[in-house]
């Protein structure tokens, strides 16, 4: 790794002094650049390839894993590049610059009654490129899926400094390999996203949220299977306790949001009530519009900024087995957020010896059930690996990285298995 002075001198051939700064402490790089044109980004990649400079594509910085050391050279932020939204309301399609914040994009689209279907945390500061690179999503995954379901086209600055497109601005496109899906969740290890084209959705006329409390999570998870059997316009579901539960207390609260036209949603509320009443729910209430907005904001917040934070993926049919295994070991201070329809579980537990033992048990259980676990935050002295369970596809992932980034320019060592 070269010194900041050496790297900075080389960067001055492309950037002004105002476009170069020392990186913030949370970043694994020494310097950060803020290009004002895409041309600068292309030239930077060519410079990096020639001089073996490593680059770290940077979004809003809301989903950073703390590495605790500087082992890369330059972070690249696209926030200062002038950005214009290319929106075709009649086609329900929009092309969005990667450096735009998610909130500003949604605000512009809402003027035509449309939206990107994703609902990631930190919408005010998260950038479009960062959301796609981290495959960030929220409770609306129940209806709309993830970025894989709404991204139509991407433009990426590749390892040769060229802007390359994949996909097309049409919903039904089957020409060539679907590289769009490859970039989603790649954490910037395959290139720097320039812009993304989304399939849009109309903003629902009405949203209603119901909240039901349960004594334990597996009873709540079973309710999801029952809901799938009934034709309801459900948009979001999430089961929470601890820091993610705005209701407080020790119960597990199941939040369910209906969304659609006024005439369609109103009769469905009573039907959903009747289904919940036949379950082991302790109670069920309909939230006011103000309460709903406030509650979902708490539910969809990210982790506390301390302790051990992990994202778990397990096959849905094994969720009950997972909870039966860990439930007896949950203590005060532990928090879980569950997307029951997709088998996604977020866990936060404090930094202590009991938590370390609990985490070991969780890893062992997930490994047995054939699932995966990624730590999104660890204490600096922790001995856990960020990805303690490696996927069987790792050899192919390494081959893809070598094919698309043979010089190892883009965020080397930051992905699964040290890719």
């Amino acid at each position: 790794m070269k010194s900041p002075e050496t790297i900075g001198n080389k960067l001055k051939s492309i950037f002004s002094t105002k476009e170069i700064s020392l990186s913030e402490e949370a970043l694994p790089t020494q310097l950060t650049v803020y290009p004002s044109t895409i041309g600068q980004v292309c030239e930077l990649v060519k410079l990096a390839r020639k001089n073996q400079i490593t680059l770290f594509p940077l979004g809003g910085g809301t989903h950073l894993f703390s590495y605790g050391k500087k082992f890369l050279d330059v972070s690249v932020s696209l926030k200062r590049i002038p950005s214009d939204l290319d929106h075709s309301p009649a086609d329900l399609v929009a092309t969005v610059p990667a450096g735009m914040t998610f909130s500003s994009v949604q605000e512009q689209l809402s003027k035509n009654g449309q939206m990107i279907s994703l609902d990631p945390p930190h919408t005010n500061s998260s950038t479009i490129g960062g959301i796609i690179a981290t495959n960030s999503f929220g409770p609306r995954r129940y209806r709309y899926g993830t970025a894989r379901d709404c991204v139509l086209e991407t433009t990426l600055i590749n390892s040769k400094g060229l802007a390359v497109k994949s996909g097309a601005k049409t919903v039904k496109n089957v020409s060539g390999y679907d590289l769009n899906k490859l970039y989603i969740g790649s954490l910037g290890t395959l290139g720097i996203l320039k812009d993304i084209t989304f399939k849009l959705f109309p903003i629902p006329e009405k949203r209603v949220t119901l909240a039901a409390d349960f004594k334990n999570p597996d009873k709540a998870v079973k309710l999801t299977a029952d809901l799938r059997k009934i034709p309801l316009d459900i948009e979001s579901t999430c089961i929470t306790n601890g820091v993610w539960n705005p209701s407080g207390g020790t119960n597990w609260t199941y939040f369910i949001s209906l969304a659609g036209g006024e005439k369609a949603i109103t009769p469905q509320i009573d039907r959903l009530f009747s289904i919940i009443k036949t379950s082991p729910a302790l109670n069920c209430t309909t939230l006011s519009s103000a309460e709903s907005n406030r509650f979902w904001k708490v539910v969809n917040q990210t982790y506390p900024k301390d302790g051990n934070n992990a994202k778990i993926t397990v096959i849905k049919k094994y969720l009950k087995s997972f909870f039966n295994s860990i439930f007896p070991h949950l203590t005060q201070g532990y928090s879980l957020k569950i997307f029951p329809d997709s088998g996604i579980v977020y866990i936060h537990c404090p930094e202590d010896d009991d938590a370390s033992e609990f985490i070991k048990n969780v890893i062992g259980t997930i490994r047995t059930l054939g699932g995966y676990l990624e730590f999104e935050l660890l204490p600096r002295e922790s001995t856990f690996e960020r990805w303690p369970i490696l996927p069987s596809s790792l050899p192919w992932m390494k081959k893809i990285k070598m094919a698309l980034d043979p010089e190892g320019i883009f965020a080397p060592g930051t992905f699964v298995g040290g890719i």
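The mean pLDDT is 91. The first strand starts at residue 20 and ends at 22.
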